[in-house]
Write a structure and sequence with these properties.
8 helices; five-stranded mixed sheet; alpha/beta; 23% strand; Nucleotidyltransferase, domain 5
């Protein structure tokens, strides 16, 4: 099958945005995003069904499902991966995991002007998920978590910080004292970028194992007793 015929659904639920995208080869067929926190479990499947209905396409015609694997919201990650696994299992399709920070870095790769790119997602308290990228590559060595002051010490003034965590990070005095206004780009995670990176991994045959794939939490996951979403982990 030609690369241009490959059809892939991408899911992004690691952040406050709930986003999906459908690609065929290099063409974006459809995209839908909802920037409302805490509604992923209610809206994700509806958004997917509506998009396929609007495009008059069948989910059975998919070749793979790409999913933003984390780090990010523990609940959002579980929802996205569980839905991706459910579709892949039901239709016997491939599943592809894309690190969330890779997809965020990809969004600015074209205008980073040679600077080091550091995507940021707020973790908890004064901690942030982050990774280091060059403008030529949107694949990080590894994702990690640290306090804002530690991140400030790690990077020089020419660094470009991007992502949903930028406003909280930028508010710290230590950050303001070292980095100028042109060092920050606030942007939402997007399933469109997840789709592009997942398509590249599809071409390389880089698939996740349907049974063993788990979210990239980075921080230790602690389940909240009585939370019905914990069942998603068991099913996944």
């Amino acid at each position: 099958m030609s690369h241009l015929d490959t059809r892939l659904l991408a899911i992004e639920t690691a952040t406050k945005s709930c986003s999906i995208a459908l690609m065929q080869g290099d063409e974006l067929l459809g995209e839908s995003s909802l920037y409302v926190p805490h509604v992923h479990v209610e809206r994700l499947v509806v958004m997917i069904n509506n998009m396929f209905s609007d495009l008059r396409l069948r989910q059975a015609d998919l070749d793979a499902i790409g999913v933003s694997i984390g780090p990010g919201s523990f609940t959002g990650l579980r929802i996205g991966l569980s839905v991706a696994k459910g579709i892949a299992f039901a239709l016997n399709k491939k599943i592809i995991s894309v690190p969330t920070l890779d997809a965020i870095a990809y969004a600015v790769a074209g205008f980073a002007d040679g600077r080091v790119v550091v995507p940021l997602l707020h973790a908890r308290g004064d901690e942030f998920y982050y990774a280091t990228y060059t403008s030529e590559s949107c694949v990080a060595g590894h994702c990690r978590v640290a306090q804002a002051d530690s991140i400030v010490e790690e990077f020089g003034p020419g660094t470009l910080f991007v992502g949903e965590g930028v406003p909280k990070f930028e508010a710290y005095e230590s950050v303001q004292g070292k980095f100028g206004e042109k060092s920050f780009v606030e942007l939402q995670a997007s399933a469109r970028n997840v789709a592009v990176l997942a398509m590249e991994k599809y071409e390389r045959g880089d698939f996740a194992d349907l049974q063993s794939a788990v979210p990239l939490y980075v921080k230790d996951f602690v389940a909240i007793k009585g939370n019905p979403l914990n069942k998603l982990v068991e099913k996944a």
